[in-house]
Give the backbone structure.
Amino acid sequence: RRRRGHDDDDDDDDDGDNDDEDAHLFNAPQRLMFKKEIENILKAAITSWGPAAFLKLVHLNFDLLEIGNEEEARLAAKKGRPIRTWLLPLLRDSVGSSRSSTLQLFASTLYPLAMRLKELVATVAEDGGSSSRGKKLELLYLQVWELFPHFCAAAHYNRDMVENNTFNDVGKLICDLLPVEQKLHKYLCHGLANLLREPANAAMENYYEQNKAVVAATAKFFFPTLFNTLGTFYYTQQSAPLTAVVASTLAIHDCIRLFSVVAKAKVVNSNYNNVLQRLQHLLPPPPSAAVAPKMVKDRPLSQDDITQLLFLTSISLDFIERLDENNINTLFQLLLPLLTTTKAKGGSSRGKLQKQSFKVVERIAAVHGTTFFFDAVWQQQLLPVFTSKMSVAQAATKKHRLGIILSALKWKVATVAEESESKKFSRISHLVTQVLTEVCLCVKESSVKVRDRAFDVLVALAHASTFGTYHTPTTVRAAPRELSDGEKGRVKDFLGLVAILACDDLVTTQSAAFLCLTRLIFEFRYDIDDESGAHVLMLVTAALENKSRELVKSTLGCLRLLISSHTAVVDEHLDEIMRALTYWVVEKKHHFRTTIKYILEKMVKKFGHERIFKLLPPRVSGQLLNNIRKDMAKKTGGGSGG
């Protein structure tokens, strides 16, 4: 007070002038000196003493929130007994690391408090009271429930759940609230996930297994509740914001997946069999599972059927890790016709269903691909999905198709690891040639995630074809390495497979090929010999004479990299390159102006100003090269370069 220049009387007057109807709800001193340091002290006290001991000393005083107690709350605040709503964020940040935090404390103290706040919110709404007061009370209600996941995270510090059977009451409470309280889905499901997920703190490992067994024993009760709650987001129109709906569904899916991992196999199979039966009712299996399905044009599926299929396949994703071989094969046979469904009635919904089907198969391939899945279905059933016309696949499925290809490559490398070198690379090369075209075309997709994954799959295919190993792609440039003659030959062969696509009639295919060549040159810049570099440079020179901007854009990127990686080859063909660039410098000077200027600047650095000056037309060489020379002088600190 002295620091602010106020005395006690002035403070009392100010308090009286600034009091409003709901000021006592949020009375944390915003201008308190050393506020952050004091909060850290209080957090340390909560962590050390435990929330139960701390709340006995520092009361929340939420009883003063009762309707009709507004004047009493104001007087209590002036006498040193305020409503301490500001303690809730401090408790949230501290209880998760306190060894004395127990679910029993939440169930006995904070849960009744939350229910009373909910009643007050309903009372304010019924009486037509202040809308701001109702919103503040509802915010406090949610803040109290926000503590629940943190109490669950700290439950593995002690034996409270085992000795006092605390989770029996808490589990019933969650089952009752999940179907009716949509705003609490995130907190309730995160709390369950914290109880089931293996803790990162080693100090919690002593009681984790015992507590996990207690929660896993209730899986047979939670599975139906979680299924029904998740179904409401699919079968009913939601009035909540999209972000809230997405957060709720993700949290519920996380709980289902964790329960499927920790629950007994009998419980998992019995619950998933119900899902599988509903899928079989909607999607009868093909007559012969050993024969690849024909493309389905008009399977009689209503909009309700598609909604049910989206719901059931989303649940299947969560169970895949625990399903046995029979269930996996049954699920795949049911979804197989949807993977090749052409555009038909249903529009975007059919597209969503096909995307979801590919997502399930991708997950199956990632989890069970190297054990039994690809051995049974790849050659006769799954491979035709990729070798048939690509028009039958929606654009949204490309990311998951690439994921399946990556898993298939990993399986193939593991399968042929013990075979002779010639047979090993022959079988890998057979797989690569079957899927390479689709991988290359995917680098032209509009989705950034699809393009990134396509480049990753391309590099993985190149490493498998060259070294016979599965490689996890990185953005770090490979260091120089000594390759055998056989490895150098295989690098050249793979580069030739991609270069063939650059001779296609379609501009899109040619552009995709040059993008792929650029990525491969970046990855194998030390392993590509001058002969292969000259062959790629010939293709680049020919493509620069094309008037398609799409093709030239991808070609210029390849040329930029070749100037750095194969300078000697570019030096030999510099005349042809400059003639090809002349059209875009003279006739189309406003297209790719920055890119071409950057390429010319690199050429000036590599081959000298005078040589490049002679190869450009006189009407542009003087002004353009003078600008380049000035820019280079500025970068090197040589002044304006005039």
The first helix runs from residue 8 to 18. Confidence is low (pLDDT under 50) at residues 1-27, 289-298.
